[in-house]
Write a structure and sequence with these properties.
The chain has 544 residues and is mostly helical. The chain is built from 21 helices and eight strands. The strands form four sheets. It has a two-stranded antiparallel ribbon. A two-stranded antiparallel sheet has the order 3-4. It starts with a helix and ends with a helix.
Amino acid sequence: MDKNNRNSDRDKMLEEILSSVGKNQNNSGISRAERAAASSANRAASERRSNSGEKTTAYQRTSYSAPSAGNDRNSSDTVYSRTAGPKNSATSERTGSVSRNSDRTGRVSRNAERTGSINRNTERTGRVSGVSERTGVHSAYNTGVVEKTGTNDYNTEQNVRSVRTSNPENNGQRRSRGKKKSIRMSGRLPVVLIVTTIIFTIAISLSILIISVGRDMLAIGKSDDIKIVTIPEGSNTEEVAQLLFDEGIIKIPKAFVFISKLGDSDTKYIAGEHELSPSYAYETIINELTTDKSLEKETVDVTFVEGCDLISAGKQLEEAGVCEAERFVYYFNAGDYGFDFENYLPASTASKFNRMEGYLFPDTYTFYVDTDPEVVCQKIYKNFNEKFKPEYYAQMKKMNMTLDEVITLASIVQAESPDVETMKKVASVFENRLANPEEYPKLQSDPTTYYVDEVIKPNIEIPSEAIFEAYDTYQCNGLPPGAIGNPGTDAIEAVLYPADTDYYFFYANIDTGETFFAETDEEHEANKDMVSDQQSADDENGEE
């Protein structure tokens, strides 16, 4: 009985599927009459099976072919019905060219209709019904839906459920959205890295700036050398800060301006010379620049005359109470105070008696009593650096002379000449001789001999005949290794711009201050005789 009920249920389901197929096969060309006949045949077969209870059934195939364009095998639809009969009496009536698999394909299509999912998915993707229409029975056969067992309904529902739950279009959209999101994230990554790098760079730069400003304000790790800084009259804070920067006292002028204005020191700077050191903090520098030291410390004026030697200048300073003579000479010869003219000095000075003889510019200086000798030296160096004009460097280069040669020759001209007019002619004599070393190898200047006898020999620690001969122009050829005194501006310009003469000799009357020049040795001997007669006559007149 249960078996008959199952068969009856299956027959009903078959009828419903056939009815669904009739709705979905509008394009197959099967008429309503044909579908009704097939339905009646299937109902009859179901009744026979339920009455006979036979296990074995024979299949009768009835094919309904619908008109179609061409010979497309998919254009025909076949409806299968079961008939009860003996096991060996099963017959097959072939009315078309479609195989048994068409019935199975039809069942799949009907099952899909019953669930209502295939057609809906077909509208979205255009894949399922398209496959059914193109491939006909073969696609349905591959689904494995067969009516022989009672599990077909369950499998069909499972397939339909699977179709309902999986939407290829939606899945594609989700994957696409995921890819777009990944692309967007990857596109943002370089921007994030760039922004992060910029932030770190700014942070590091600010940190370095803060540290640099702090070190400069507190003078951490800076030199403790004392320097002379001259503040011009009427200088504002910005100009003072720039001057301090140029002198190497501070490194960040804007920071100094900020601190100065913060302490309301803009209008309190005092013009004149100030002793400052890079090791001073900003506060100390401001205090030094706003305090008039002349009110607290005693000052003294010292005048160095043209032609004075370095040792004599040291003695003057010591007598004035400025500093010790020996320490002054030592620091003056040491030099290296960072002035421009020092870059033109020779590297080797081993043959010199005093390395910086000639660079103490003759002038009147104001010093504080008990001043550090390095401060005194810097003040004198600064004066020479300012007085030796830029055009002097251009002219000495034009003459193919070094700075040391110009100063050395100027010191000899200074010692030989009583006035500026004489200096230019004396300079021309020495330069003419230097230009003809084969004929006139020696300069033969008396002051060089005096310098050896009166300055070098009394003050040299270890006597050296080589140095004595090197400075005496009656024994050495050409210029001595260094200056024999400190020349002034007139002597320096006389060397750079000498008179245009053919003189190779000169002879001076010390009593009268007159100098006589000659082109030849005969003329020079005549001048010597003339001066000797003048002096003899003066002596006779003096006796009378």
